Amino acid sequence: MASPDLSIVTGALSYSGKHIARKLLAAGQRVKTITGHPNRPNPFGDKVEVAPFSFEDPGGLTDTLRGASTLYNTYWIRFPMRGMTYERAAENSKTLVRCAEEAGVQRIVHISIVRPSKDAPYGYYRGKAEVEAAIQASSLSYAILRPTVLFGGEDILLNNIAWSLRRFPVFPIAGKGDYKIRPINVDDLAQLAVEQGQHAENVILDAVGPETYTFRELARTIAQTIGAGTLFIPVPRLFMLLGARMIGLAVRDVLLTRDEINGLMDGLMSSDEPATGTTKISDWLQQNWDLVGTVYASELRRR
Ligand SMILES: NC(=O)c1ccc[n+]([C@@H]2O[C@H](COP(=O)([O-])OP(=O)(O)OC[C@H]3O[C@@H](n4cnc5c(N)ncnc54)[C@H](OP(=O)(O)O)[C@@H]3O)[C@@H](O)[C@H]2O)c1
To answer: pTM of the prediction?
Structure first.
């Protein structure tokens, strides 16, 4: 029997899943997490039970999910690494959905991406579309939330833009920098997820904040707020990619992928839908200007 007060969150020891788990606990829910790093320090102590992802053992994964009424799913990969591909991540996600059905879970709140498409030139977006289709074909009721780019907490992308602005005298902007970006605060996404976990109808919502910038405007706003006198120089797309690669080599990480740069320039980090988050990134920057970008956030170190 599914218990209405037990939720499963994938990745509650990582980024957005941690914020979702925090809000669920505050709302009086019991929370269990599934993670690839079960031995990572658990900020929730014994309030959040930890289980490993076991995609190769669907029976075990089903047992882990049994008893929960809602699954909050953040599982995905930012880029292929160490044998993990988008195709494999999509298969794992579909296994998770099947196991959730088998376990008697009633609802999935799934974190996707704005504008997923099976025909997208980017594996990230194709894989996301495939997983969304599997969820819609399942017996679970669903809320599919499609964020653009997250900020706040332990975010990577905007933090590392601020980090670069603090460290380097020049900042390359691919092309005119007039492509739009509309970030959402990670707590707003978590709030939206928890609210949607309480409903039963099927919904697909873009998860977007109240402010839309061009990329050039956003980079300038960050620079001004943190007090960086950085010079912005327009460069061809390839130069931005090469620059990102060089910084990535220096910090032993992947700063930005080719798909992220192309997706950003294609307008895939924005949306014309109504705002579903309330926190303005300009306000958040004012409140966090002394912290944002002071430490590089490494994707590879988290993995
Ligand atoms: N961050 C953003 O700006 C952003 C923007 C748009 C959409 N999204 C979507 O939002 C969701 C959550 O993103 P997030 O940034 O909060 O992710 P995250 O916390 O870093 O990771 C979410 C989950 O995916 C697992 N995971 C991540 N990379 C993996 C890899 N290479 N191999 C195996 N497992 C991996 C994590 O495993 P562990 O539990 O082991 O850490 C965790 O359980 C994702 O579906 C993402 O596509 C994020």
So the answer is: 0.97
